[in-house]
Specification:
Layout: H1 3-14, E1 24-28, H2 31-34, H3 42-55, E2 62-67, E3 69-74, E4 85-89, E5 95-101, H4 115-132, E6 147-153, H5 160-170, E7 209-215, H6 224-231, H7 239-245, H8 253-261
Parallel strand pairs: 1-7
Antiparallel strand pairs: 1-5, 2-5, 3-4, 6-7
Length: about 270
């Protein structure tokens, strides 16, 4: 075999197209991103830390700006958050969340999403639902009374139609799934997230789909003072303080902090 022939074959190999793969990501709001970093975060925190380490490619974690997030759901007084407000997609003001790519490979064959990849997407949703406390051995859906795992699809993805059909098959919902309780226009009846995301931003430009958890607001959206009053007893370990410290911010944070900085009233 001549040298030119060997060089030609090497060039053809080097020009071979890369295998097609879907890029899936998870949008992380607040405690899903930071819980488990403290020893006193308990078993729920340990579960989330393990989830991040096994399900996400840590090198891909990055900021996701211009998303409508805010503190909106007041937790139960006797629950582990003890009346603090947790974060959801809501309102029109933009904040900065976090996003990380799924670790699992999601191959595509000749432009078609194979069953194995579709099932891997469903499994990723299961793992997220388990980390959030939505899914358990007794409750195997992606929906609970307070939260739902939903999918957002990049409108520029060449696989958008196939992803839509795949998610309709993989989304595990209750027979009577009331999507309206998760915020007006936030999630539809098929478990698709209807939040306006900055798909043209570098953080999302090459992502085909995102999974995210939307929780149900309970009543009217709280003002900054209510959020601060609920966080104050917990000091630097409050849900608000730890979320801000992790780099996840909302448009209301400055106003909340001003109330927290006020001297306590006697």
């Amino acid at each position: 075999m001549g040298q030119n022939s060997r060089v030609g074959k090497a060039l053809r190999r080097s020009r071979a197209p890369a295998p097609q793969r879907l890029v899936g990501a998870i949008i992380l709001l607040a405690s899903l991103y930071w819980e488990g970093e403290h020893a006193d975060d308990g078993p729920d925190g340990a579960k989330r830390l393990k989830w991040r380490r096994t399900q996400l490619a840590s090198s891909t974690l990055r900021d996701l700006p211009n998303v409508p997030i805010r503190y909106a759901r007041r937790t139960e007084d006797n629950g582990r958050r003890k009346g603090q407000y947790t974060m959801i997609f809501a309102g029109r003001k933009s904040g900065t969340a976090k996003i990380g790519n799924l670790r699992a490979p999601l191959p595509v064959n000749a432009g078609v999403i194979p069953l194995s990849t579709e099932q891997a997407i469903g499994l990723a949703a299961d793992r997220l639902a388990q980390a959030e406390g939505i899914q358990s051995d007794q409750q195997i859906t992606h929906v609970s009374p307070w939260g739902v795992v939903a999918m957002a699809i990049n409108p520029s993805s060449p696989y958008r139609r196939a992803l839509r059909n795949a998610w309709k098959r993989q989304f595990k919902r209750e027979q009577k799934f009331d999507h309206k309780k998760f915020g007006r226009g936030m999630v539809d009846a098929h478990g698709f997230l209807r939040v306006r995301l900055p798909w043209i931003h570098l953080a999302l430009r090459h992502v085909d789909f995102c999974l995210a958890t939307q929780t149900a607001p309970n009543g009217s959206l709280p003002n900054a003072k209510a959020i601060a009053d609920a966080a104050r007893p917990f000091g630097k370990n409050s849900y608000f303080a730890r979320t801000v410290g992790a780099g996840i911010v909302t448009a209301d944070d400055d106003a909340v902090q001003r109330y927290l900085d006020e001297p306590p009233r006697e």
